[in-house]
Design a protein that fits this description.
Helices cover 43% and strands 14% of the residues. By secondary structure, the chain is α/β, with parallel strands linked by helices.
Length: 252
Amino acid sequence: MTKTEQPLTGKVAFITGAAHRIGAAIARTLHNNGMNLALHYRNSAEAAQLLKQELEATHPNSVMLLQADLNDTNTLPKLIDGINAHYRRLDLLVNNASSFYPTPIGAAQIDQWEDLISTNMKAPFFLSQAAAPLLQATKGCIINLVDIHAERPLKNHSIYSIAKAGNAMMVKSLAQEFGPDIRVNGIAPGAILWPEQAISQDENRDETLEKIILKRMGKPEEIAKTVLFLFKDADYITGQVITADGGRTLQQ
């Protein structure tokens, strides 16, 4: 099937935190299905440019890059304006960008609270609000990357878990607010990639894998396929958070 024959050709997705890891996998999957992309990054300019070059090798002029600190909410409408000026439409917003690090009780700081709440909850909310008019025009979708720890808090990560719990409620609330024109869903990944700042010792990895029913790590591409499903094939699903964790949350 050629690019012009693909059902998503000409549609536009905006992915935050798209330069690395799950964000980059989502970008590749959507692009392989014919979509044009607006890819956000904060500090990873080189990685973002390399991803753009990789994708445009098969589909020229199909990727735009947007640099921003999403904690600065004043920039969020400007990002949407830039996408509209470039593509004249928006079909999918993927709120993927996230901060993640431990904040043990007794040592947690106000600036950590503000950063984790902002990146995981405030920025996705106000970006969704800014994107709503364009998404309404295309009967589009919003997909938030949540976390299994929105329901089961991760020890020493209270602020992050609180923020992701708010993100999960955002999915339900925005689905109600934006329906019927915009569907809003979420994906709660389990152990997909080892966190860059956290678990790194072999014994911790073994302990984590033992708790996963499928006994393996998930792949970024498996989360990306879930994004594709929710966008392309889930016309009657809204306000739901799909857990993709290999059965991790079934274990006590």
